[in-house]
Write a structure and sequence with these properties.
Structural class: alpha/beta
Radius of gyration: 19 Å
Order of helices and strands: EHEHEHEHEHEEHEEHEEHEHHH
Strand content: 15-25%
CATH topology of one domain: Rossmann fold
Mean pLDDT: 94
Strand order of the largest sheet: 3-2-1-4-5-6-10
Length: 318
């Protein structure tokens, strides 16, 4: 299959690119390295795939580019590009989130209209669409009430996909990720920050009391879910993609202390606007339709990410 991935140099996109290439597909990777605060990490993410004969890389500004030329012959499109993160989506930066998460999604959908052989568009959504749910588990039927501008933009992207499915038959599935972690995680994300501080013995700021709980999902399990969604014949669907287990932030910090062999220098401050206290995924629909079975435990996944962080910051340790 000819597959296009937006955000191919990112955390999930680079892992997905490798998996698809390993399965014999041709992958067109689209991403923008310029002006990225994670530019060096993104470049490192690509080192395995860049020399693969079936990988075609394009460093472009997706908002300005003619996406039709890349998508016109695609059998499948994974739209992973965008701006993530709850805390930075308030204030003046909201316009950036609108452009990257809403306007770009509409542009991708317009390009998909011209792809006559398109079998599936997989859209990367987020558990942030649920907001601060009072339910023990969030199912795909749970109310969507975002409590952050970021969550609002991801829900808007889902709604756009639904509109284009109903009006133009764009065969999409949306994946609501629950707190993805693992090697190549962005430097602003929790586990990356926690482990870097642990490795370099630096002070670490924790927002809230640390008793917030998350459904942590390892990146390999997310990649497997995406590939299953690509092959799923049911369209217009939304899937929760959660992990093996749920834990509190404090429990995760304790596990990292065991990995690094020292106590962390923790500074607890007030909760941040838009951060839900708990997230937990009901994945029964993904299990039934995608045969989704997350397998990587939190301890195993943390150990793999710790090795990645240790290698990434090796020079700073010396």
């Amino acid at each position: 299959m000819n597959i296009v991935i937006t955000g191919a140099a990112g955390f999930i996109g680079s892992h997905l690119s490798e998996a698809l290439l390993g399965s014999g597909h041709t992958v067109i990777g689209l991403d923008c390295l310029d002006r990225s605060s994670n530019m060096s990490i993104k470049q490192d993410n690509l080192k395995i795939v860049l020399n693969h004969p079936c990988f075609k890389w394009h460093d472009i500004n997706l908002l300005d580019a003619d996406l039709e030329q890349y998508i016109c012959d695609a059998d499948a499109v994974f739209h992973l590009a965008g701006i993530a993160g709850v805390r930075n989506s308030w204030g003046a930066s909201f316009s950036d989130y609108l452009q990257a998460n809403v306007l770009l999604t509409q542009k991708v959908l317009e390009a998909c209209k011209k792809a006559s052989g398109l079998k599936k568009l997989v859209y990367a959504s987020s558990s942030s669409v649920y907001g601060g749910s009072d339910e023990s588990y969030s199912s795909e039927q749970s109310p969507t009430r975002p409590i952050s501008p970021y969550g609002l933009t991801k829900l808007a992207g889902e709604q756009l996909c639904s509109l284009y499915y109903k009006e133009y038959g764009i065969p999409f599935s949306a994946m609501r990720y629950f707190t993805v972690y693992g090697p190549r995680q962005r430097s602003d994300m929790g586990f990356h920050r926690f482990m870097k501080a642990a490795l370099l013995d630096e002070p670490l700021t924790i927002f809230g009391n640390g008793e917030q709980t998350r459904d942590f999902t390892y990146v390999d399990d997310v990649v497997a879910a995406n590939i299953s969604a690509m092959n799923c014949s049911k369209h217009g669907t939304v899937f929760n993609i959660g992990g093996v287990e749920t834990a509190s932030v404090n429990e995760v910090l304790h596990k990292i202390e065991k990995l690094c062999g020292r106590n962390l220098q923790l500074n607890y401050v007030d909760e941040q606007p838009g951060d839900p206290f708990t997230t937990r995924a009901d994945i029964s629909f993904a299990q039934a339709e995608l045969n989704y079975k997350p397998v990587v435990t939190l301890d195993e996944g943390l150990a793999r990410q710790w090795k990645y962080i240790s290698d990434l910051y090796r020079m700073e340790r010396k």
